[in-house]
Amino acid sequence: MLRPSSTDKRKRATDAIPKIQRGDVIIADVGEGASDVVVGKNIIKIGTLVVPALPVIVALIIFLLVGGGTAYYFSLPVKMPLNPKYPYFNVVVADFGEIDQSGKAIESAAGAGLSEFTFTTLKSTFKDLPQKVQDQFQLQVWHSSMYLKEMRYTIGRIATETEAQKLAQGIGANIVVYGTFKPTGDGTSFTPEFYVAPLQNEADEIIGKHNLGEAITETSLNLKTAMTERLELFSKFTLGVMYDGFGQNTRALDIFKDALTSSAAAQSSQGAQVINFFIGRENLFLAQAKIALAEDYALKATTAATPSEADAFRAKVAEANTQIEAYFASAETAYTASRRADDSYARAHIGLGGVALTRANLQSPLERFNDPQWIQRAVQEYSTANDLAARSNDAPTLLKAQLSLGNASFLQGESFLHQQDWKMAIAAFDRAIQFAEPQLPGLTEQYRMLGQTDLLLGNAYYEKGLAHAQVSEKEQSKAAYGKAVQIYSECVKLKKYPDKILQNVVVVTCEKYLTDVQKALASSP
To answer: What's the whole-number mean pLDDT along residues 301-309?
Structure first.
């Protein structure tokens, strides 16, 4: 048998691996026990398996990118921060849309640009706030332009209050900025609107839509210049709402007063009416805080160790009463200015009713009966607010008006009860129940207001039972007592929610009255 020459060997070897050129072989550490391994720039050969190198490397890179991208994606927040330990205040700027000639809401290039301008302006404005404010509150502003950069929530276009409410719930926002371009005879108008979500689990008259000014007409005003002025007002409005939401009413009052002097508020009756409403609100809250302080001083005067100590506490009561009256006067002035700007503004009537109801609540049942001006005025203002809110489909204000009418009716029933006018008392308690009870389903997640409504209804049924008992309507009396037991018991269950006012005031009162009505029911014939 002939042996091939050395030249033939080299040729055969070359023929066997024609794709491996000089300089293509790369040394690779493939591990102990491997055999017949070649690693090249373009292939990886392990035994009889030949794998193209480029696809493997590309696949590896894609795998790493996808894995890293997925980890990054899921690291992005899908909701705005809501940590109860820190006072986050969240603002989201939705995309602005446009109404076409057929009346359909569509996307808008101008709206997208103005929406992003609004976002960047607000973010810059909040960043320029004093450092102590930034340290005290974690102001967050979100916008669609942040998608997949800083968050993974699709904000989208918002055109209505209902959509703004849904967005606020979905993203965890306190305020939603939205609006829609609308065609007019002169061109296009734009009204920036602001939706305020429930704060601190409490139903309130500030929840819902607010307009800080008239519509901006593109043909008569430079849109961005006009929006800059409006956003300056809005940033103050936001800051005031933020302090209000965290119970710092004196600071909120100062901010709203400052906002009222801004050019945007001065040029627009609508902006002024909203800011005046908030000024009235803070004054009323401050009056209520002084009322609680005066009551505390009065109690301490009755338990003082010495006559001089009692006199000192009584002097403090007198001083607090003077301050209360001053706050009442300021609240009425501001609410009246708000109503004067637009008599159809339901919230202004809610505010005036609130001042009157607070005054009526300070009267004894006998004083309220002999001098019914405040309770009558409260009912009048709340009734007007109720009608206006129903007409404008303003659900949050309608809820507040209905509950307020329930409270006013209860105070009327209490006065009739003390005058032993049992039939009139029963009628008033029935009105209180008819106003308040249908609102319960709308309060399922607003625990403080739910507790307060339970307390109102429990009291109305309890005292209605007392009145029925006085006219020998035994079955009606027992039924009313039984209903009171049921509602007070529901109120007591709310103790599990971490709200100090709910736990220490509302639930404690429900527990006390629950015991009283259970005794009354047990002793009923």
So the answer is: 94
